[in-house]
Amino acid sequence: MTDTVRTSAPSAAAARHLRRRRARDGRFRYYGLTAIFVALGALAVLVLTIGTQAFSAATYNVVRYEVTLDPAVIAPEGANRPADISRNVEGFYGLVRDNLLKTFPEAEADRVSRRELSDFVTRLAVLPTARLVANNPELVGSTITLTAPLNDDLDLYLKGQGVRERKIKAGAVSSVQGGQDGTFLLSGTGAFEAVVAGLAVASVDRAEDAGQPDVLLTAGVSTGRLSDIDAGSARMELLTGRAQDFAQARATARIILSAESERTISDRQIAWVLALREMGRVDRVPRWTLLTNSDSTYPELAGGLAAIVGSLLTMLITALVAMPIGILAAVYLEEFAPRNRLTEFIEVNINNLAAVPSIVFGLLGAALYINFLGMPRSAPLVGGLVLALMTFPVVIIASRAALKAVPPSVRSGALAVGASQMQTVFHHVVPLAAPGILTGAILGMARALGETAPLLLIGMVAFVGDVPRSPADESTVMPVLIFSWSNNAERAWEPLTSAMIIILLAFLLVMNGLVVFLRRKYERRW
């Protein structure tokens, strides 16, 4: 007789438990997907924030000046050698200033106007031209086009940053009448109706005691400041150009939302820079100087070349010290060291060193290398040695993990055919573990490249205007330069800081890409 096995239906308690377990599994998947999307969203916000700020620093505005290289100014008697010409920054700057005064003669009226016009270009901006003429003395006496970066505040204004304003198309002006006080009365049917409406909207964005915002009216190369505005007329103070240019012209009104006393540029400077752009003398060009210039106190002249070279020299010293010593230490601990309390103590401390804050290594480096050994401050040599101390644990731990991943059969087979332990390790085990060893070493170097705190303690925060030529020269690195620029008060440093962050991230991506390439090309699966 055959017994029939009956499968009973699950009990109500078991069914409830099964539903709860499935619900927990579903929630876990939901939490995992949510975490991934949150992380990707945060990364997107970070990239978008840095990228939008860095986009402004990718280009800058330069102004062209037609100047005649007067020998009496550029190469006077007794100072006409190439070295003297290259140092004659004041002479070249004087030519640029004279060109601006010739273009805008109204600036000759008072000292304040002359100073405002002189602020269009910094003295050091003419240094490349001075060096060019020094290398080509035959240019002295000829007329050349001198190109120099625009003042950083005016550069931001032309990019639509730094000064809050609203542009409104005004109506046609039918008549321009001069007054005894030097102002002009502009009139036309409905000429300023849109301006009046714009002022009403602008008053909402301003404090009650801020007063009436400045209104600039531009027609071609001419700009004036308006007052007593109503729908059909306005009184204008001419800032630059000719009043007749506004007759029968549909000019553009600019309502400046911030008071002139609260801005870094004046109404007259805005008028002059708009006139230069209308003349076609202002060009927006790529900012290659960010990669070719060294640091400067002027944002429009600052670059990261010295910091980039300093970072490369520092990483070179770090690699030459940390990689061979760290890899050999890992090989000894994994393949040759006896298993006793001493090696266990060393292994525990290596793991602990990997978690020590980086600033502690900076304190150690300052005490050992600078105070005790007397090495130079702010040098890539010292910075590389400090970062090597910090990188040692990472390299040793990664290298030991790669060596452990090699199957014991490789060692047994090599020993079975008569190889010594040294030959087994260096002819068979290490080559097979090399991809993992290099991966760990490069990741350790990538971490060191982004460190700031230990390098601040050994003086690499100093201002460096020259590109270092050797590891013993004074230098800085990219993370420290980013830290320094971010602390500067001028707004123009913000996009430059973001641009330097992009450059640093590019270096890190290259190093991480090299890790991925090595792992995929040489990785062995056992």
The strand count comes to: 10
- What share of residues are in beta strands? 5-15%
Classify the helix fraction into a percent range: 40-55%
> Would you tell me the overall average pLDDT?
88
CATH-level-4 superfamily name of the largest domain = MetI-like
> Quaternary status of these chains?
single chain
Q: What are the secondary-structure elements, in order, as H or E?
A: HEHHHHHEHEEEHEEEEHEHHHHHHHHHH
- The CATH class designation of the largest domain is Mainly Alpha
User: Strand order across the biggest sheet?
Assistant: 3-9-6-7-8-5-4
Total domains: 3
Poorly predicted residue ranges: none
Intertermini distance: 55 Å
**Gross CATH architecture of the largest domain:** Orthogonal Bundle
At CATH level 3, the topology of the largest domain is MetI-like fold
Structural class of the secondary structure composition?
Answer: alpha+beta
Round the Cα radius of gyration to an integer and report it: 34 Å
Counted by DSSP, the helix tally is: 19
The gross shape turns out to be flat
Largest beta sheet, briefly?
7 strands, antiparallel
